[in-house]
Amino acid sequence: MEEHRAPGIVRIATKYGLIQGALSFLVFLVGTLAGIRQGWVQPAISAALLVVLMVLAHGEFKKTHQGKMTYAQGLGSGTLLAGVAAAVSCLVTYVYVKYINTGYIAVVLQAQRDALAQRGMSGAQAEQAMAIASAIVTPVGIAVTGLITGVIVGFILALIVSIFTQVDDPRAVT
User: How far apart are the first and last CA of the chain?
Assistant: First the structure.
């Protein structure tokens, strides 16, 4: 007789993380092509998608594990999902910025210069700020900061989402 094993947390989180990574890059690409440089819209859309996919991943886990999922399982699943999503999105963004849209960095740095000028910053202060921005706004810098930010934000969202999606085993000893 064959034993059917339910998919584990890693498999489910990876599946939804790959979906989230692709969707996050799509949000980035649409924003870039639409000329949206900075603001709260793109991060808010990505965060909302992440929450929805976390809830779906938690639901799938509970469906395949007798309706149970501890807080720790939800937190681990959500964090792994966010990590996979950040890795995929950052990798694809790196390729896009480095090889496809090579002018992206120049546009971002010019937008930064314009923002500094609007704030009345000029001269040495502006040059110092641009030197720092130039060191960070590179294909590798964008990928690394995106990965770190994605994991941290994903962990925080997983902390919150898991509160609502956990279903402990009532027979468990606490």
Answer: 35
Q: Where are the domains of the chain?
A: 9-101+143-165
Q: 2: which DSSP letter? A: P
C-alpha to C-alpha distance for 40 and 165, rounded to whole angstroms: 27
pTM of the model as a whole: 0.89
CA dihedral over 165, 169, 170, 174, signed as positive or negative: negative
The answer to whether 143 and 91 have CB atoms below 8 angstroms apart is: yes
Torsion angle in degrees (nearest 10) through CA of 74, 80, 82, 88: -150
Give alpha helix (H) positions in 70-138: 71-95, 104-118, 124-136
Q: What is the mean pLDDT of each run of 10 residues along the chain (174 residues)?
A: 77 98 96 82 94 98 93 97 98 97 92 87 85 92 96 98 89 63
Residues 6+ apart with CB under 8 A from 161: 51, 54, 55, 58, 74, 78
The predicted structure's pLDDT at residue 172: 63
Within 10 A of 24 (CB to CB), how many other CB atoms are there? 26
pLDDT at 35: 82
